Amino acid sequence: MRAASLYLRLGLLVLVGFAGSSCGSGTDPEVENLRAFAKLYGYVRFFHPSDEAASIDWDRFAVYGAERVAAAGSREELRATLEELFLPIAPSVQIYPTGELPVPVPPVAEDTAGLELVAWQHFGVGLGPRSIYRSKRLNRELEVEGWGSGALQQVVDAVAHRGKRVSLRAYVRAEVTGPGNRGQLWLRVDRLGNQVGFLDNMDDRPITVSDWQRYVIDGPVADDATAIAFGGVILGEGSVWIDGVEVMVQSEGGGWERIEIENPGFEEDEEGGSPADLGEPTHR
C-alpha cells in the first residue's frame, strides 16, 4: 500500500463581474470585488482539502485579502489578485468568468489503489471551539474541528447554608493542546423561581497546565438559595483529572466547615484522598 494521499481536486466557478459602466448595475465596484472574494473565500476555506488551506490563519487572510481585492480596477486585475491570493493555498482551484470553460484537470495518478481521499465533511460548520457543529478533514491528523465536552456534577441542598459563603476546592491537572481546549471547575447557587444566584465556571481562567494544582472558587449563598451545584468539565479535546474535591461553607465565626459530598476523591470503595506531593499553591 502506498503511503500517499489523493487530494480532492476542485474546479470552482467564481463570477468576478466588475460593476460600474461595464455592467450597468450601479453597484459600487469595491462591493462587487469583495463579494467575489467572499464567495471564493468560503469555497476554499470550507471545502478545499489541502494542508495549506487547513493550517492558514483564515481571519488574518480575510483581512489581508479584502484589502487587496478592494483596490482592483478591472475584471482582469481582480482575477489576477484572486489567483495570487488563493493559488498558493489551493493550487487546484480554477477561477474563470462566465462563458469560459475550465481547463481539464488530469487525474492524480493512473493507478489510485492505495491512495486515500482527503476531503472535508461538515455537520453544520464547526467555526470555533464553542460551536455545536463539527467539521472533519478525512485522512489527516488533527482532523476534527468543533466542540466536544464532558462534565461531572453534584448538587446539594442549600437551605441550611443560606446567607453564608460557599467554596469549591479541588486539585486539577489537564493534558490539552490547541486553542479552546481546557479544563474548568464550576460552582453555581440556584435560587427560588429557577433563578441563578452566584455562578463561576472559570471561563476567564481555564485550566491548561499538566501539573497538579489546587483551585478554589467561592461566592455567596443567597438568602433564598435552594441548591448548590458544582463540578468539573473538559471542553474540546484532551484529558482532565480532578481529585480531592471539597465543598466548604463559612460559619458565622469565619471558619470553614465541610459539606459532605459523594466520592470526593473519585475512589469509590477505596481509601483515597488528594494525589501525593501536590504542594499547596492555590489558584482563584
How is this fold's topology laid out?
Layout: E1 4-7, H1 29-47, H2 51-55, H3 58-70, H4 75-86, E2 115-118, E3 120-123, E4 134-137, E5 144-146, E6 149-157, E7 165-175, E8 182-191, E9 195-200, E10 213-220, E11 225-235, E12 239-250, E13 256-259, E14 282-283
Parallel strand pairs: 1-2, 10-14
Antiparallel strand pairs: 3-4, 4-5, 6-11, 7-10, 7-12, 8-9, 8-11, 12-13
Strand content: 25-35%
Class derived from helix and strand content: alpha+beta
Name the shape in a single word: elongated
Question: How widely separated are the two ends?
Answer: 53 Å
* String of helices and strands: EHHHHEEEEEEEEEEEEE
Query: What's the count of strands?
Result: 14
Rg, rounded, reads: 28 Å
Helical segment count: 4
Major sheet details: 5 strands, mixed
Helix content estimate: 10-25%
Structure description:
- The chain has 284 residues and is α+β, with helices and mostly antiparallel strands.
- 17% of the residues lie in helices and 32% in strands.
- The chain has four helices and 14 strands.
- A five-stranded mixed sheet has the order 13-12-7-10-14, with no helix packed on it. Strands 6-11-8-9 form a four-stranded antiparallel sheet, with no helix packed on it.
- A hairpin with a 5-residue loop joins strand 12 and strand 13.
- Helix 1 runs antiparallel to helix 3.
- The longest helix has 19 residues.
- The protein is elongated and about 80 Å long.
- The N terminus and C terminus are likely disordered.
